[in-house]
Each structure stands twice: as structure tokens, then as C-alpha cells.
Amino acid sequence: MTKKIKIAPLISILTMAALLTSGFSFDSSEQDNLSRKNMLSGQIWAVQVTAEPGESATLQQNFEAAHGPYDGDVDKDSADQVDKNSFGLVEDDDGSTKVVKGEDYVGSYFHIEQLAHTTGGKLSRYIDISSPWSHGYLYEDMSVVGEATIEESFSMDNLAPGDGALTDWFKLF
Questions:
Q1: Phi, psi values for residue 170, rounded to 5°
Q2: Cα–Cα distance, 91 to 78 (Å, whole number)
Q3: Backbone angles phi, psi at 133, to 5 degrees
Q4: Beta bridge partners of 12
Q5: Where do the structural domains in the chain lie, given as residue ranges?
Q6: Cα–Cα distance measured from residue 55 to residue 52, given in angstroms and rounded to the nearest whole number
Q7: In a 3-state reduction of DSSP, which class is residue 171?
Q8: Contact, 91 vs 97, CB < 8 A?
Q9: pLDDT tens sequence for the chain (173 residues)
């Protein structure tokens, strides 16, 4: 994950949060522990740029995201029976948990490149995104009043696509 932020002079930052880490664990004493865990945050990436009269503002974004369906907890004897478009979790004989994917599973990832700028106005951002696979968590709630420029890129790769997945959006239509 890479993140680059430039904030122009003469601004006031009202609130800003930081990159945190968190995770989840499985309690082996529970019979059905795989489906009882809430492993994700709100998965929100929101930006708003407004300009005062006589000023200018711009927002440029380039992003791609995918998250295929969850097929639920899979019995270890039928792990190869997971739906071809889904992923599931299976518990091995040694008690460890592994991911099984169908051949057409699209993957689970989020990539964004963004430039937000105002010569005078307000730039607000709210980000709440996490990964149960890397245990990464990004939370940010900030507003900038005045002149502001934020240029950034962010990548979160959780699960790779299946071997037969269509990963180019234009091939879907």
C-alpha cells in the first residue's frame, strides 16, 4: 500500500486520522468459528471537493475494485465443490483455515489513484477500508478549508482471481 499526500500552504486541517493495524483471529474452541467473525470495516472511500465563488476545484480518480461472492464455510471433504464464481473458507485437519476459490472467482482487490484540488474552498475525505487477509486498516476523516491539493495512490490486494476469471471489465460486455 502506497500513499502520498501533498497539502498546500495556508490551510487549516480540522481532523485527520492515521493508518492503523488490526486483525481477526479464529477461536478453535468454537464449533462454527469461521462464519461468526466480522472481518471487514465499512469499506468506504469518499471524497468531496467544493470551491468558493471565484475559486476552482477538481477531482480526478482512476480506480478498479472487485470482490466476488462468499460461498460460506466449506466442508473439507467437498472443498473442490466451491461455486465457480465464489470463494469459501475451509478448516484443515490441523485446525488452520485456508481459502478455496472457484476458477471464475473475480478476486478481491481495490486500487485507486486520485488527485483532489481546490484553490479555495473545502476538501473533505472519509475513508474506512480494511483487509482481513493482510490485517491492514485505514481510517481517515478529514476536512481542509482553503487551498488544498491531495495526490495519492492506494492498493489493497486481498485474494487473487481464479484461473478462468475475466479481469478486464470491457470483456464482460
A1: -70, -15
A2: 11
A3: -85, -40
A4: 145
A5: 1-26+41-68+111-162
A6: 5
A7: helix
A8: yes
A9: 444 444 333 222 222 222 222 333 333 333 344 443 455 566 889 999 999 999 999 999 998 888 888 887 877 777 677 888 888 888 888 888 888 888 889 888 889 999 999 999 999 999 998 887 788 888 999 999 999 999 999 999 888 888 888 767 656 55
3 state SS for the chain: CCCCCCCCCCEEECCCCCEEECCCCCCCCCCCCCCCCCCCCCCEEEEEEEECCCCCEEEEEEEEEEECCEEEEECHHHHHHCCCCCEEEEECCCCCEEEEECCCCCCEEEEEEEEEEEEEEEEEEEEEEECCCCCEEEEEEEEEEEEEEEEEEEEEEEECCCCCCCCCHHHCC
Torsion of CA 163, 173, 112, 22, to 10 degrees: -50
Q: How far apart are CA 113 and CA 45, in angstroms?
A: 12
Of 131, 125, 89, the closest CA to residue 111 belongs to 131
